[in-house]
């Protein structure tokens, strides 16, 4: 296991049209890098940063099949030949590597452990950085800062999401830093302890949570009809 304090490269990047966070993680010593949840519109920016930092992009990883934007995965595979696409098996999407519970994605001395966290979609996963000095998890749309992913499409299910968060994310130590796939209010990150105390949805009983989620009344994402089919194929439609 590595010690992030000395050799983890970490960047949180933002795509403003979909309010998506993309994360770059790398091992400073071996230069191996991963990108989590890139967006097609900012794929060139991300590839340039990888190059400028002298990193070798090995994996382009998604937390789930996104409904609101087209993933940058396919474009990054053409911009950075050799990197591999990664998503959960349960997403049913096409990728080079299909992950299941407990599997690891390794870059240099670091690994991301897969925790299946269905509920927003049935293929959602959370990636937990295994490290001695810093605890970090990438929650996708399962858990947002003081919120959570909606459950009204893509086989979403509020009771399942509630169990995923309490069983797979809130069981991490309270000081675990949590990084979501989106934020719509300018917030960047949170912690397990903070969300267990202050998340307005997840601090409710499961029954109340289900009621809240079934009455959000959100408009569908503007790009859903083109994004979902494209993202089933790494963001590239044949
Ligand atoms: N207005 C946006 C879509 C916003 C949205 O639905 N966000 C999703 C995550 S992307 S699948 C969500 O789960 N939101 C939860 C919430 O409480 O806001 C667009 O048109 O793209
Ligand atoms: Fe989503």
Automatic annotation (TrEMBL):
Q: Which reaction does it catalyse?
A: S-sulfanylglutathione + O2 + H2O = sulfite + glutathione + 2 H(+)
Q: What gene does the UniProt entry assign to this protein?
A: LOC118424863
GO MF annotation, one = sulfur dioxygenase activity
One GO CC term on file: mitochondrion
Q: Which family does it belong to?
A: Belongs to the metallo-beta-lactamase superfamily. Glyoxalase II family.
Upper lineage ranks?
Eukaryota, Metazoa, Chordata, Cephalochordata, Leptocardii
Q: Which UniProt keywords apply?
A: Acetylation, Dioxygenase, Iron, Metal-binding, Mitochondrion, Oxidoreductase, Transit peptide
Cofactor(s) needed, names only, are: Fe(2+)
Main location class: mitochondrion
Task: Write the Enzyme Commission number(s) for this entry.
Answer: 1.13.11.18
Q: What is its quaternary makeup?
A: Homodimer. Monomer. Interacts with TST. May interact with RELA.
The Metallo-beta-lactamase domain sits at 19-182
Q: Name one Pfam family in it.
A: Lactamase_B
One of its GO biological process terms is: glutathione metabolic process
Which compartments is it annotated to reside in? Mitochondrion
Iron is among the record's keywords? yes
Query: Which InterPro entries does the record match to this protein?
Result: Metallo-B-lactamas (IPR001279), Mito_Persulfide_Diox (IPR051682), POD-like_MBL-fold (IPR044528), RibonucZ/Hydroxyglut_hydro (IPR036866)
Which CDD domains does the entry mention?
POD-like_MBL-fold
Q: What is this protein called?
A: Persulfide dioxygenase ETHE1, mitochondrial
């Amino acid at each position: 296991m590595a010690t992030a304090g000395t050799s983890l490269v970490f960047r949180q990047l933002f795509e403003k049209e979909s309010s998506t966070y993309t994360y770059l993680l790398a091992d400073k010593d071996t230069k191996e890098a991963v990108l989590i949840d890139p967006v097609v519109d900012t794929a060139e920016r991300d590839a340039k940063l990888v190059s400028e930092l002298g990193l070798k992009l090995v994996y382009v990883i998604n937390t789930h099949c996104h409904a609101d934007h087209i993933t940058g995965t396919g474009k990054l595979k053409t911009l950075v030949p050799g990197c591999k696409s990664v998503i959960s098996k349960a997403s049913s999407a096409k990728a080079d590597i299909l992950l299941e519970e407990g599997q690891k994605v390794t870059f240099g001395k670091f690994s991301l452990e897969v925790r299946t966290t269905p509920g927003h979609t049935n293929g959602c996963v959370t990636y937990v950085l295994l490290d001695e000095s810093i605890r970090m998890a990438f929650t996708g749309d399962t858990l947002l800062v003081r919120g959570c992913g909606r459950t009204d499409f893509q086989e979403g299910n509020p009771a399942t999401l509630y169990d995923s968060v309490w069983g797979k994310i809130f069981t991490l130590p309270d000081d675990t830093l949590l990084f979501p796939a989106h934020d719509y209010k300018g917030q960047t990150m949170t912690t397990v302890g903070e969300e267990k105390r202050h998340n307005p949805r997840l601090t409710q009983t499961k029954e109340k949570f289900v009621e809240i989620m079934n009455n959000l009344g959100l408009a569908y994402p503007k790009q859903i009809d083109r994004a979902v089919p494209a993202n089933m194929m790494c963001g590239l439609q044949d």
